[in-house]
Structures are given as structure tokens and as C-alpha cells.
Design a protein that fits this description.
Oligomer: heterodimer
Shape of chain A: globular
Structural class of chain B: mainly alpha
Number of helices of chain B: 8
Distance between the termini of chain B: 54 Å
Radius of gyration of chain A: 27 Å
Order of helices and strands of chain A: HHEEEEHHHHHHHHHHHHHHHHHHHHEEHH
Low-confidence stretches of chain A: none
Largest sheet of chain B: none
Number of strands of chain A: 6
Shape of chain B: globular
Helix content of chain B: over 70%
Strand order of the largest sheet of chain A: 1-4
Number of helices of chain A: 24
Number of strands of chain B: 0
Structural class of chain A: mainly alpha
Mean pLDDT of chain B: 79
Chain lengths: ~650, ~210
């Protein structure tokens, strides 16, 4: 089917969603899903054939001719938007319904369709001005979605922080696009590699899109926005919206000449984001905030791949660079899938218990087996465990890095260090998700709400099942996804035509199903043995203590305590200990809080200083007419001197 | 010819100092008015006689010497304004400032690249000094009416400068400026009255709270 028609259907579906969202829920659902479906078909056509769709009608918007283009790179991201967007649309039907949230749900539906449409336009626009328009619409629509629950002051604060950070990034983009337009003489976007003088602009790309992507250091808005947004919005923000930042970096690293130093910087910031993201995740006690920090980690892994791809390109277009880049691209999909699955799971937990605080949850698997199972699958995937999709993309990055080590160039040493750090990241992520699953789903319920948790409805379960299925599919048959990845890579760098699937990936396609079948058989065997032996349930051995209570379980903080202590130098946790005193102590307790270190030690002092300077400047505006006249006179005299002085000289 | 001109301009410069040094509202208004009349005579001295010039000169004298002062005096009476001025810059410092400004104006004017015809008159120094005096009054006094006077003296300075261009400026423009000035003073008179009825004061300090 014609790609243009499909994309028109996408736009029409989303527009229907925007128009119908207020009152007609069914039409909204239908329109948005049809739009998402059309986008999926259009994107898969482009990814399967590699053909670029290019549309230049004869009309202009803002004095710039309209130019839309869908190539494999754009299609790669459009696919993610449509799949995750579609799944979360269905989920939100029950999760944020008009019955539960009469004030915000109607507007939320409109903004939801608007954000999907504008993200689609971001990947389609091939004109700088229109790109900026779509980008800004996307940022603002996302702001309204994040603050849907705006009666909560924390949500409002998170929304403001997001809006401010987002506009800081957009400011860089304005600089980028206007300089591009001034230097090349047109707003058209496309391959500009031969303009070598444009290379420094890539730093603007990194700053502008890096804010949206949530690179460590620029991620300040991300934890609070993801934690306070409704869960379907968190899923979209984390799974898709931050990928728009990645899209920008990937896109412009392909179009602009990239300085070698910037290529290394991307790789290093990737490694830093991955390690520090997971470390901060370990220190969190809020389920969604923890997941948000894992987004920082996974963005790091993506940029690691992209960065080493760029380094490989700078070092004479090496094979390992292609592998790392492909791994980074595939991780975009994978993270989008498992992270939205995890956020939807967290949403179900929140829906059932009303809290995101892990210390108030526990034992949920009894009440919500589906959510627990699907969340565990997502957790295994994000921890990079075989045979799931997280392992596949990390495996590609590993392959690239190991080949770089084997190539014995100047890259070998940094690549080796990166392998170690990536492995460490994976291990820490695993530890973190063992903590989450253990504290939230296993053990005994820590609160009344957790005790009475109930499973979510089919409309919420279905999207989670779909996402989990896709995670498993990519994990079990990774070689199927090689051709789209290689098409996207070729669209990114045309010289890479016809990449054969690496042998390692083909081996994985055999190994993963074997591992999966073996694991399933093992589980079935165990299950049968347990059933046959007729074992009975008993409480965990409690060291002979007579009255065990739910409060005696490991908390999230104590479980991760050893690991977080290693990283005390960056986490800077605040601990308030009230130690038990005497033989019969009355009150004792430990309160532990991990602050937003970067926000509180870097951005906040800087902002405070700016505000103080601004207040100083404000004292000039005091409302005394006479002084204003004095300013005028002083200004006039200075002007007179400036103009007359050269004449006298 | 230029002797007479210099005498008139010199008198006007003296009136600047009177306006700066006087502590009473009415005398500031009177100084501005007399200065306006003096300056109104100047076109007659500078040019060959022409009936249009006569019309403008007479109109200037009538408006600046009669209409505007009477409007201001009426405002002072009807708004019941204290005749005392409240200076932000004291009278002696104002006078010193004015004197320094006048000297500086003379010094500066000598170094300006002027036409030979204007080089030996007091027109340019007088203009600069009047503008400066007007600004000092605007900055250094609190009451709205004094500020109007400062504005009038400033305008007199600009008018003096305009005389340099008497040949090239159509008289209708001069007439227009005069009309503007009258309307401005008229409106300020009304505003002063309204502000008084609204806030019971014309102290511009107290209007500061309207700034935002």
C-alpha cells in the first residue's frame, strides 16, 4: 500500500483522536488505534524495502515549502511510536478513564493523540522550521500529559521542571537550526557531511537533544516527570519521548560532520549515563522514580552503541563500529518495549494499591499474578538476561566492542574498559530488579493496601501482554530483526550497503529458543516434582522468633544498602538515624533519602545565583520617575560622547 | 542684530537659574512663562520681517506667556497644591549644577562644528543650557506641576535649537509644536486634577505603587 496514503491515515486517525478525545471515547480509541496501525504498516514497509518516501507538495507553511520524508531511520522510530503508543492507548482507556478522573481524562485523551501525532511529524519533517514546530508541539503536549494530575503540587513542580529543561534544550535547537539555515542557505534538512565547517554544530545537537534524551547530567527533569506523570504517560515518555532525543542525535550525527572528539564524547557520556543511571536507580525507593533512572541507564547503553559507531566511522569505517551502532539502534526498540511494559506494570501496581512507595508494597504476586509475571519478564529483559530482547541488543554492542578490542587499535583499551563497565551496568541492573521484584511482588504485604491488591482488567493486561510478547519475539528470533536494523543503519550511513547478519546473532537465534525451552522444561519438571511430593506451605524460617511481622522483611533500602554504600561518593544519601537507646527503647528509626544530586548540587545553586543577579538588576526598576529620567539623561550623555568624540579627535 | 539676540538668550539662561533656585511653585511657573515670551521675540530679531513670522511669534508669546501659565496656575489652585516645592536635589546644589551646566554648554558649543553664521551667537549654548536645566528640574523635583515646568523649559531649549533651522523649517511645523505643547499641558492639568481627586496627593513618590 502507498506509504503516503498510510501516513495520511496516521495523521487523520490522530486528528480524529484529538477532535473526539473530549467526548467520544470510542471514536478517540478507534481513531488513535487506526492511526497507530497505519503508521506501523508504513514504517514496516519502509524498513522491509528500504525505499525512502519523499513528499514535496507545492504549498508552504511559514514561508517554507512543506517537505516530508520517511526513510529507514525515521521509520525505525515511527515504528516505536506507533507500537508503544498504540499499546499504551488501550491501557489508558481503563487506567485513566473518565469515571476515575473526570477532570483530566478528556483533556488527557486529546493531548495523548496530539503528542503521538507531533512525534510522528518530528520524524517525518525534512524542513528545519517545521521540525522545530513539531518538536515544540510535542514538548508542550507532553507537558500537559505529565501534569494531568495537576492538583498534586509535586506533579506541578515536575511539570515546570520538565518544561524549563525542555525549553533549555529547544533553545540550543533554535541555535542549531538557524545557524544551519544561515550557513547552507536553506532550511532543508539532509546530508551535510561535505560542509566540514559545520562540525562544531554537533555539540549543539548533543546539548539540545541530550536534554530530551536524558543524558546523565542533563537528566534533571526526567525522574520527577516520569514518576509523577500517570503511568501510561510515563510509559510513553520513557519508552518513546526520550527516544526522540536519541532520534535527533542519531539523525544529525548522520547528516552533519561529526568531530572525532564529539564521537568519543558520545561514547563516554553513554558509559557514564549507563553506570550512574543504574547506581541512582538502586538508591530509589519510589517504584516509578527507580524505573525513570533505568531510562537514564538505557539511554546510556544506546549512546554507547551510537558513540562507538561514530568512533568506528572516524577510525576508517570499521566493522565493529557498524555492529555497535546496530546494537544501539536495536536497543532503542528494546528499551522502548520493556520500559513501557515495566511502567505499565508499575501503573497496575499503583492502580491497585494507590502508592508508588516500595516500602508500603510487598506480596503482590498473590493478588496480581499477571502483573507480577509480566513485570518480572520486563525486569529480566531490562537486566539483559537471555533469552530476552535486552540481551540481544547489548550482545550486539558487546560484539562490536570485543571486535574493537581484537582489532588492537587505539580504541582497544577504551573498548575493553567499556565492556567491563557495560557488564557492571548489567549486573547492577539485575541487582536493582531483584530488589524491585523481591520487595514489591514477593514476601508479605507491608500495608493494608498491598494486602487488598487486585489484578488489573483485561484492557490493561492486554497491552502488557503484547509488549511482553514483542520482547520475547525479539529475544527468541533476533535474526529476523537484523534486516530492518541494517536498513536503518544504511539509511544513516549510505556507504554501509548490504550488511550481512553477524554470525553471533545467528548463533543467538539458535541458542535462545534452546535456552527458553530448557528453562520452561526445567520449570515444568520442578513444578511436577513439587506437586508429586505434596509439599506444604510454611512461613520463611524466622530464626526462632516468635512473632514475625511484615515489617521485619528486607526493605528496598536495606536490600540495596551494600551496593549503594559503594557509590556513596556520588549518591550522597541523607540518613537520619534515631538509634535505640537503653534496654527498652521507645522510638527508633532510620530514614534514608537519595537526593537528586545533579539537580541539587549543580543546577539549583546556578539557578539561585542567576535569580540573585536578576533581583539585583530588578532594583533598577523601582518606579521612581525622576530616576528613570536620570537613566535617560545618563544614556543620552553617553551616546552624545560616543558620537561626538570621534569628531573631536 | 546678534547683540540683541545674545541679550535675549542670555536673559533666558538667567531665567533657567531662577527656575532652579526658586523654592516656590508660582515663581517657577512664572520663570518658565517669561522665558517663553523672551524666546518668542527671537524670530523677529533674526529674520527679515514677514507677516507669517509675526503671527508665529505673537502666537508663541500668547501661548507660552499666557495660556500655559494660566492653565498651570489654575491647576495649582483647583488641586489645592502646596506652593512649596519638595526638592530631591536641594536648591543650592541645583543652582550649582545649573551653573556648571551652563558653563559646560558654552564650552561644548565652542567646539561643535557650527555654521559661521551661528558660531558667535548664544543660541546653541542657550539651547543646551535650557535642555539641561529642564532635565535637572524633571529629575530633581517631586511635584507633578514642577515637572511640567521642567518639561516647558526643556521644550524652550529645543525651540532655541529649532531657531537655527528657521530657514528650512516651515512655520507651520513651529505652529504644530506649539499646539502639541498646549495640548500636553492641558492634558497634564486634567490628569493632575484627576490624580488628586483619586489619591489625594500629587507627590510622585506615592504614585510609585502603581508601577506594576
Amino acid at each position: 500500500m502507498n506509504t503516503g496514503l498510510l501516513l495520511a491515515l496516521f495523521a487523520a486517525g490522530m486528528t480524529t483522536g484529538i477532535l473526539a478525545g473530549r467526548s467520544a471515547v470510542r471514536i478517540w480509541l478507534g481513531g488513535t488505534l487506526v492511526g497507530a496501525g497505519a503508521a506501523i504498516v508504513a514504517a514496516s514497509q519502509t524498513l522491509l524495502t528500504g525505499a525512502t518516501w519523499d513528499w514535496q507538495p507545492a504549498f508552504a507553511i511559514g514561508a517554507q515549502p512543506v517537505h516530508l520524508r520517511l526513510d529507514a531511520v525515521g521509520a525505525w522510530f515511527l515504528m516505536l511510536i506507533a507500537v508503544v503508543g498504540g499499546a499504551a492507548t488501550v491501557y489508558s482507556r481503563d487506567y485513566w478513564s473518565s469515571e476515575n478522573h473526570p477532570a483530566s481524562a478528556p483533556a488527557g485523551r486529546c493531548w495523548w493523540s496530539a503528542v503521538l501525532l507531533s512525534m510522528g511529524l518530528v520524524v517525518l519533517c525534512a524542513n528545519g522550521l517545521h521540525f522545530l514546530l513539531a518538536w515544540e508541539t510535542f514538548a508542550i503536549a507532553a507537558y500537559f500529559l505529565v501534569t494531568l494530575d495537576r492538583k498534586n503540587s509535586e506533579t506541578r513542580a515536575a511539570g515546570w521542571l520538565y518544561l524549563a529543561a525542555s525549553h533549555g534544550g529547544t533553545l540550543c535547537l533554535f541555535g542549531l537550526f538557524t545557524t544551519l539555515a544561515a550557513r547552507t542557505g536553506s532550511w532543508e534538512l539532509g546530508d551535510m557531511r561535505e560542509h566540514t565547517e559545520l562540525a562544531p554544530l554537533f555539540w549543539l545537537v548533543l546539548a539540545g537533544f541530550g536534554v530530551k534524551a536524558g543524558l546523565f547530567g542533563l537528566h534533571i527533569w526526567l525522574p520527577s516527570a516520569h514518576a509523577n506523570a500517570p503511568s501510561h504517560v510515563s510509559a510513553l515518555m520513557s519508552g518513546v519521548a526520550i527516544k526522540m532525543g536519541i532520534y535527533g542525535i542519531v539523525r544529525f550525527s548522520g547528516w552533519l560532520p561529526v568531530p572525532v572528539s564529539a564521537a568519543w564524547f558520545v561514547a563516554i557520556i553513554g558509559v557514564g549515563s549507563a553506570v550512574l543511571g543504574v547506581v541512582f536507580a538502586l538508591g530509589q525507593h519510589d517504584l516509578k522514580r527507580l524505573l525513570a533512572y533505568h531510562s537514564v541507564e538505557n539511554v546510556g547503553i544506546i549512546l554507547m552503541g551510537v558513540g562507538f559507531g561514530l568512533v568506528g566511522l572516524a577510525n576508517g569505517d570499521t566493522a565493529w563500529g557498524r555492529l555497535a551502532f546496530a546494537g544501539g539502534l536495536l536497543h532503542v526498540w528494546n528499551h522502548g518495549l520493556f520500559k513501557s511494559l515495566l511502567f505499565l506494570g508499575a501503573g497496575s501496581v499503583l492502580h491497585a494499591t494507590g502508592t508508588r512507595e516500595m516500602s508500603r508494597l510487598g506480596g503482590l504476586w498473590r493478588g496480581m499474578p499477571w502483573t507480577a509475571g509480566l513485570f518480572a519478564l520486563g525486569a529480566a529483559a531490562i537486566s539483559g538476561l537471555p533469552p530476552l530482547n535486552g540481551f540481544v541488543s547489548e550482545f550486539l554492542v558487546y560484539l562490536g566492542l570485543v571486535e574493537a578490542v581484537n582489532a588492537h587499535g587505539g580504541v582497544a583499551l577504551p573498548a575493553m574498559a567499556t565492556v567491563v563497565l557495560l557488564a557492571m551496568t548489567g549486573a547492577l541492573a539485575l541487582a536493582c530488579f531483584v530488589k524491585v521484584c523481591g520487595v514489591v511482588f514477593l514476601g508479605a504485604p507491608r500495608s493494608e493496601a498491598a494486602q487488598q491488591a487486585h489484578e488489573c482488567g483485561p484492557l490493561m493486561r492486554g497491552p502488557m501482554l503484547l509488549l511482553a510478547g514483542l520482547c520475547t519475539l525479539i529475544g527468541l528470533a533476533p535474526v529476523l530483526f537484523w534486516s530492518p536494523v541494517s536498513r536503518a543503519s544504511v539509511a544513516w550511513h549510505p556507504a554501509w550497503s548490504g550488511l550481512p547478519a553477524p554470525a553471533g546473532l545467528r548463533a543467538l537465534t539458535v541458542a535462545h529458543p534452546v535456552v527458553a525451552v530448557a528453562a520452561l522444561m526445567g520449570v515444568a519438571l520442578l513444578f511436577r516434582r513439587v506437586q508429586r511430593s505434596g509439599g506444604s506451605r510454611a512461613p520463611t524460617w524466622d530464626c526462632g522468633y516468635a512473632a514475625p511481622a511484615a515489617r521485619m522483611q528486607y526493605t528496598a533500602g536495606s536490600f540495596a544498602g551494600i551496593i549503594t554504600a559503594w557509590f556513596e561518593w556520588v549518591l550522597r544519601r541523607e540518613r537520619h538515624v534515631q538509634a535505640p537507646e537503653k534496654a527498652f527503647p521507645r522510638h527508633a528509626g532510620v530514614v534514608e533519602h537519595t537526593p537528586e544530586t545533579v539537580l541539587e548540587t549543580v543546577f539549583k545553586p546556578a539557578a539561585d545565583r542567576t535569580l540573585r543577579a536578576a533581583a539585583l538588576a530588578r532594583s533598577f526598576q523601582h518606579g521612581r520617575l525622576q530616576s528613570y529620567l536620570l537613566y535617560l539623561v545618563a544614556g543620552l550623555i553617553v551616546l552624545a560622547i560616543v558620537t561626538v568624540w570621534p569628531v573631536w579627535q | 542684530m546678534s547683540e540683541n539676540l545674545n541679550i535675549f538668550v542670555g536673559l533666558a539662561m538667567g531665567l533657567n537659574l531662577v527656575a532652579l533656585g526658586s523654592s516656590r511653585l508660582t515663581s517657577v511657573i512664572r520663570a518658565a512663562a517669561v522665558q517663553g515670551v523672551l524666546l518668542g521675540v527671537l524670530p523677529l530679531l533674526m529674520e527679515e520681517f514677514h507677516w507669517m513670522i509675526l503671527v508665529v511669534a505673537v502666537l508663541t508669546m500668547l501661548v507660552k506667556g499666557g495660556l500655559i501659565p494660566s492653565l498651570l496656575n489654575r491647576a495649582v489652585k483647583s488641586a489645592n497644591i502646596d506652593r512649596d516645592l519638595i526638592p530631591l536635589v536641594g536648591y543650592v546644589p541645583s543652582l550649582l549644577l545649573g551653573a556648571t551646566g551652563t558653563l559646560a554648554a558654552v564650552a561644548v558649543a565652542q567646539r561643535l562644528p557650527l555654521l559661521p553664521a551661528h558660531a558667535h551667537t548664544l543660541l546653541v549654548p542657550g539651547a543646551l543650557a535650557s535642555v539641561f536645566t529642564g532635565l535637572v528640574l524633571l529629575i530633581g523635583r517631586v511635584k507633578a506641576i514642577t515637572q511640567v515646568c521642567g518639561y516647558l523649559i526643556l521644550e524652550n531649549g529645543i525651540y532655541l535649537f529649532g531657531l537655527l533651522l528657521l530657514h528650512s523649517t516651515p512655520l507651520i511645523v513651529e505652529g504644530g509644536i506649539l499646539l502639541d505643547l498646549t495640548v500636553a499641558v492641558f492634558i497634564i492639568g486634567i490628569i493632575v486634577d484627576r490624580i488628586r481627586t483619586e489619591f489625594d496627593t500629587l507627590d510622585t513618590h506615592k504614585l510609585n505603587m502603581l508601577r506594576e
